Amino acid sequence: MSVLRISLRSFFAHKGRMVLSGLAIVLSVAFVCGTLVFTGTLNTTFDRFFGSLTSDVRVGPVEEEHAQETGRPDTIPAAVAGRVASVDGVAAADGQVMTEHLTLVDADGGQVEGSGGPTFGADWGPAIQRTMDLADGRAPSGPGEVLLDADTAEREDVAIGDRLEIVAIPGRVEVEVTGLASFRDTNPGAAFVLLDPAVAAEELLGAADTISTVEVVAADGVSDDELRQRIVSALGDGFHVETRAEGEKALRDEVGFLDVVRYAMLGFAGIAVLVGIFLIVNTFSMLVAQRTREIGLMRAIGSSRRQINRSVLIEALLLGVIGSVLGIGAGVGLAVGLMSLMNAVGINMDTSQLTVTAAVPVAGLLVGVVTTLVAAWLPARRAGRVSPMAALRDAGTPADARAGRVRATVGLLLSGAGAAALVAAATADGSSAAASLLALGLLASLVGAVVVAPLLASVVVRAVNAVVLRAFGPVGRMAGRNALRNPRRTGATAGALMIGLALVGGLSVVGSSVVASASDQLDRTVGADFIVDSMSSQAFTPEAVAAVRGTPGLEHVTELASVNVELTTADGETTEEAVAAADPTYADDLRAETLSGELVAAYRPDHLSVPESFATDHGLAVGDEVTARFVGGETTTLTLGAITSEDTVLDQGAMYLSLDTARAHLPADRMPSSMVLFAKAEDGREDAAYTALQENLRDFPMYEVNNQADYKQLLEDEIGALLNIVYALLALAIVVAILGVVNTLTLSVVERTREIGLMRAIGLSRRQLRRMIRLESVVIALFGALLGLGLGMCWGVTAQRVLALSGFSVLEIPWPTILGVLGASAVVGLAAALVPAFRAGRLPVLRAIATD
Q1: Which residues form a coiled coil (predicted)?
Q2: Residue-wise over 718-743: b if at least 16 C-beta within 10 A, else e?
Q3: Choosing a second label site near 528 at 20 to 30 A (CA), which of 103, 283, 339, 777?
Q4: What pLDDT does residue 398 have?
């Protein structure tokens, strides 16, 4: 009989035992393929949207490097459109007004916004009409009338005839919605408000006879690059001219989160694949063990080691191919499900744009097949080394004990190396070296824990048995012995669960420590009672600043802006720095520690403070002078008033000067708008001032008022939301690990059929048998949880010590989370044992005893 026929017969004879391993492959491949399809579709959606927003050639204002963030849109003269239209090869040249420096407010004072995307204001002119169509109502005519994009109108429940307000740096404008416009392609989630071209420049840009860009359509036969060169020659310097490809790339770069999403999801898919490897190794190891006598007979009648090895690998190949094919299909379904989820939260994705490239099935097959073959290689090799006589006697291979000693030695060495790297990372002085040591320690300790798990099983499982199973009497003792019967199998099964829980434990420690450190810094360094921040990163309008300053019960209000300055020190080096320009009261609102001088001195005219590292690098001391060129403004000399400590989370490494110094050396139109406001209440009037401040900003929903308690809660909620996303992605790895527990128990029941029959024959009831198997599962799950959470806490503590170099100095262990995960692991163990325990209880006693 050929090796292929033997493999096929064995595969289909054990097809029930292969199902769970195949399911692990399906889930792993589905996550990989689903990620590729989902992110590919997301990229397609944004690319098509960006393509609809760009023209063949675009002419706009020069993009000055490190320009001041004034909060006002850059413009060019409207007459430039006429000059461009006269260039040979231009089919159309339309001036366009467009800005995202605005907020849309409804009649109730709520913010009308895109679903995660920006809000754009534009003119309803020829350029935008090449992208959008009037879907309902009529076009705007004159001041006070606008179109709203249909997606935003539906999501925000805005109808034709509703009154809105546009809030921008030029001022507030009350408008009426006269119609709805729809995109010809899918809008991922941006909001668009469209004004009459005759008034758009005045109301959105603050000046008539100005435009944002000239959108150019090339004549037939003229390439974009060629037309761009002609326009540059005609206009000369002073303008930024880009082709469609350059414009799309610039827009794509602004949404760099797409790559982050893709690589993050692929990273978690890789974790699921790694966990799946444990499951497949266990499955094939147990199948080989159960076929020991069969393998011995095959060897006795002439089968070579190579043929036995090949037979097992062929079974693995079949499992990998079938699982991969099913996983590819499931991945496409997963991507569609994710798209539906994105649509539910307001980010529009259309299944008609579903992007399934050739890389998707190729990646799915590679991941599934290669993973399965790699995982089956060790069991296949072990099967080939079984001698005929040993197999016929049901004895193991003589090399098993020696292999176990080698494994334990390697595991201990790797674990020791990982522990040493983690200790070195925790005690390192530099952030870069600490991060590298942390990465090395994570990898070495993870691999070491996986390899040494069988050795640890004999120790930890005994401790778990003594604590957890003592109350269950003889049944508990039998369950504990079963878990210890094959430490390698128990270690591999628990190791799969360990990986996911180690990441959960480590990230929970890091997240809690970051929140605790920031809260501690707020308590120690923030003197302001209130922080007024922009929810949409929009600069503060003069009206909003006036509303804050006019709030009764406030002792002072501090404005904070970021000013770009080129600093030239005495050593001749010039660096571009973002300097915090603030009112002098900022020294009270944020009590930064100084190493030399006093912070209040930094707010004197033409004075500056620098952080310790900058002073050390350039040999500066208090009283020294530096040459400062304000980008877009004057060059002057600033005197060093203070050197600040960098042992902080808030404003670490910041430089300070006064707003008056910045205003003295920058033109009014280049002066950055304030991005954050701080306020201090008069003694005893904190509550009244808080209420009054919120009321004064009721008409400015894009700004949020927080007291210190609010700010701490906001930080905790943001970290918590991020961790929840990570936990959700890790859930796949944990699900695969649970499948591993189920598969191990199922195969273990098959392996112990005769033993179970004998126990039933001498009086063990079905209920006791099922309890024994459930307790065995709980022990394995708790072993994996203890190993994973212990390893994760070591990672988390080390990571916190590395973060302490950046000011996050408080270590906090989230014991409720850790204990909750440990308890959930026991529940997972119970759930994983339901099916194997039920099947064991249904085994007929006589047939089980007669099993060979």
Answers
A1: none
A2: ebeeebeebbebbebbbbbbbbbbbb
A3: 103
A4: 42
pTM of the shown model: 0.79
Task: Give the whole-angstrom CA distance, residue 232 versus residue 236.
Answer: 6
pLDDT band at 350 (very low <50, low <70, confident <90, very high): confident
What is the DSSP pairing of strand 625-630 with strand 554-568? antiparallel
Cα distances from 310 to residues 6, 108, 168, 280, 296, in angstroms, run: 10, 73, 72, 17, 15
**pLDDT mean across residues, the chain:** 86
One domain for residues 802 and 660? no
Predicted local confidence at residue 159, as pLDDT: 94
Domain range for 484 is 454-525+710-852
Domain boundary among 237, 271, 294: 237
Residues 478 and 586 reside in one and the same domain = no
The Cα 156–Cα 441 span in angstroms is 49
How far is 69 from 507, CA to CA, in rounded Å? 35
Task: Look at residue 590 and tell me whether its pLDDT is greater than 70.
Answer: yes
* CA dihedral sign, ordered 279, 281, 283, 286: negative
Q: Which residue has the tokens 């499992």?
A: 319
Measured between alpha carbons, how far is 700 from 102 in angstroms, rounded to an integer? 11
Cβ pair 329, 31 in contact under 8 A: no
In angstroms, the CA 746 to CA 286 distance is 10
Residue 737 CB-half CA count within 13 A = 33
Lowest mean pLDDT among 163-167, 244-248, 457-461: 457-461
| 746 and 597 in a common domain | no
In this prediction, residue 83 carries a pLDDT of: 94
Pairing type for strands 171-183 and 132-137 reads antiparallel
Q: What pairs with residue 575 in β-bridges?
A: 567
Instruction: Report the domain count for the chain.
Output: 3
* 152 in a structural domain: yes
Q: Supply the DSSP symbol for 353.
A: G
> Which tokens belong to 800?
């916190």
CA angle 276, 752, 454 (to 5 degrees): 45
Domain boundary among 701, 720, 751: 701
Query: Rounded to whole angstroms, how far apart are CA atoms 109 and 278?
Result: 56
81 and 138 together in one domain: yes
3-state SS, residue 56: coil
Query: Positive or negative CA dihedral for 37, 43, 46, 48?
Result: negative
> What are the Cα distances from residue 11, in Å, to 6, 16, 113, 320?
8, 9, 57, 12
Helix axes 305-344, 292-300, angle to 10 degrees: 140
Helix 487-525 and helix 431-464: axis angle, to 10°?
130
Q: In terms of domains, do 596 and 653 share one?
A: yes
Closest-CA residue to 505 (of 735, 729, 793, 722): 793
Q: What is the rounded distance in angstroms from the CA atom of residue 124 to the CA atom of residue 824? A: 57
645 and 742 share a domain? no
Nearest-angstrom CA–CA distance, 146 and 179: 7
Say whether both 802 and 847 belong to one domain: yes
Nearest by Cα to 279 from 741, 735, 781: 741
**What does the pLDDT look like over 147-171, one tens digit per residue?**
999 989 988 899 999 999 998 888 8
- On the 0-12 / 13-18 / 19+ scale of CB atoms within 10 A, 413 is middle
Kindly report the backbone phi and psi dihedral angles of residue 676, in degrees, each rounded to the nearest multiple of 5, phi listed first.
-140, 145
Q: In terms of residues, how long is the chain?
A: 852
| Residues 146 and 201 both lie in one domain | yes
Rounded CA separation 799/545 (Å) = 40
Nearest to 539 by CA among 681, 650, 671, 698: 671
The neighbouring-strand residues paired with 566 are 576, 629
